[in-house]
């Protein structure tokens, strides 16, 4: 796997919710869905190289698995990780 492929593997998708969109306008923070094994340094490098912006800070949040039932079938939702990336003043990312 080349280095560029790894960057695209780290930034899986933008996490577009009402709260995340409000953060974009208020503190220039963008939210992405990332692999559970990704760390803050990898996330920062991936965003800087893919979008050509300056990242000030990265905060991560890990959502644990939850038990779910549907009739007789019991299972677990997948665990996932969210990264909130704060950009430097005046820089933006077009996530739509």
Q: Can you identify the CATH superfamily?
A: RRM (RNA recognition motif) domain
As a whole number of angstroms, the C-alpha radius of gyration is: 15 Å
Structural class: alpha+beta
What number is the mean pLDDT? 92
Q: In CATH's first tier, which class applies?
A: Alpha Beta
Report the strand count: 6
Strand content: 25-35%
Architecture, according to CATH? 2-Layer Sandwich
Outline the biggest β-sheet. 4 strands, antiparallel
Distance between the termini: 27 Å
State the CATH topology.
Alpha-Beta Plaits
Count of discrete domains: 1
Name the strands of the widest sheet in spatial order. Answer: 1-2-6-3
The low-pLDDT segments are: none
Q: What order do the helices and strands follow?
A: HEHEHEEEE
Query: Helical content, roughly?
Result: 25-40%
Global morphology: globular
Number of helices: 3
């Amino acid at each position: 796997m080349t280095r560029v492929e790894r960057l695209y593997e780290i930034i899986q998708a933008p996490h577009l919710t009402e709260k995340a969109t409000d953060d974009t306008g208020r503190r220039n923070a963008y939210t992405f869905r990332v692999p559970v094994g990704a760390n803050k340094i990898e996330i920062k490098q991936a965003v800087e190289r893919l979008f050509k912006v300056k990242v000030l800070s990265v905060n991560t949040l890990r959502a644990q698995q939850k038990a779910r039932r549907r009739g007789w079938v019991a299972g677990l939702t997948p665990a996932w990780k969210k990264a909130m990336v704060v950009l430097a003043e005046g820089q933006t990312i077009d996530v739509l």
